[in-house]
Amino acid sequence: xxxxxxxxxxxxxxxxxxxxxxxxxxxxxxxxxxxxxxxxxxxxxxxxxxxxxxxxxxxxxxxxxxxxxxxxxxxxxxxxxxxxxxxxxxxxxxxxxxxxxxxxxxxxxxxxxxxxxxxxxxxxxxxxxxxxxxxxxxxxxxxxxxxxxxxxxxxxxxxxxxxxxxxxxxxxxxxxxxxxxxxxxxxxxxxxxxxxxxxxxxxxxxxxxxxxxxxxxxxxxxxxxxxxxxxxxxxxxxxxxxxxxxxxxxxxxxxxxxxxxxxxxxxxxxxxxxxxxxxxxxxxxxxxxxxxxxxxxxxxxxxxxxxxxxxxxxxxxxxxxxxxxxxxxxxxxxxxxxxxxxxxxxxxxxxxxxxxxxxxx
Length: 361
Prior knowledge:
Blueprint: H1 2-13, E1 17-22, E2 26-32, E3 36-46, H2 73-89, E4 95-103, H3 111-117, H4 120-123, E5 128-135, E6 143-144, E7 148-151, E8 153-162, E9 166-167, H5 177-188, H6 191-195, E10 202-211, E11 217-218, E12 221-230, H7 233-253, E13 257-266, E14 269-271, H8 273-287, E15 292-293, H9 305-309, E16 314-320, H10 339-360
Parallel strand pairs: 3-4, 3-5, 5-16, 6-15
Antiparallel strand pairs: 1-2, 2-4, 6-16, 7-14, 8-12, 8-13, 9-11, 10-12
């Protein structure tokens, strides 16, 4: 609430009409162009931090223990607010309007879906929409954007194994849920290598395991958690089906029972070709063609801007901020020097698309 309140205040200071509480804590700003009718262009920035303890020694490091902008969303907000200031000051040159979308809960908590369910695009219609992410694995001042799949869908899974615990001295009298869990974890990691075409991108990772609580008791229950990431719906379906069948059959082989829950968390992010080209051309103007990668590799990370692109055509780009600690690393640091590039990209896209409206008026 504090972050969204601050964003709303910054927009209101420069005379931008604001709507609060979209999808719980989302903020919308509207810039009405005065040059005439035209497109409604959406620009989106994510707002959430991560439950990570920051380990940097920066003077502006997080003051809240266990809460850290370890993905650079604070930088994304700053870029969009900077672009908003310019666009609001030059609204006499804009045909149509600009919809500024500040989205909460991007980090796997369904913020985009919550805003959409709250009537985002019915209440603030957009003809096209754009967003970005900083990239600490890319050279400073470079921009990567291309058509088609950009980042993966993501399903989160939980597998609960029920056995029959007992004294560690009498394993033959038990059904060891922990042992079954280990076997299931090993089995699941064969799904990609043996069930997915090698030319398709797919990842399955078991990321959390829990069983037992002391030295001399064989656990009664165990849990495995993890993620499935794919680029294609059919591969996603295949992997989910195999995960369920393997988990249950392996557990049964150990005399245990497994129950599986799989949650659809992210859709595949697919850039629309026209709008990817619009971003690439804007990047040429901002950083020069030599610094534009128009065919970046697909990333198996996930991004819930994907759900907005299922409703409105648009595209997403990556802004290089110089090589450094990875996203979600406790020592990650957003590079403030990248802010002008991101803000300029947003401005360039709006101005270019507004001029298209002028030429067709």
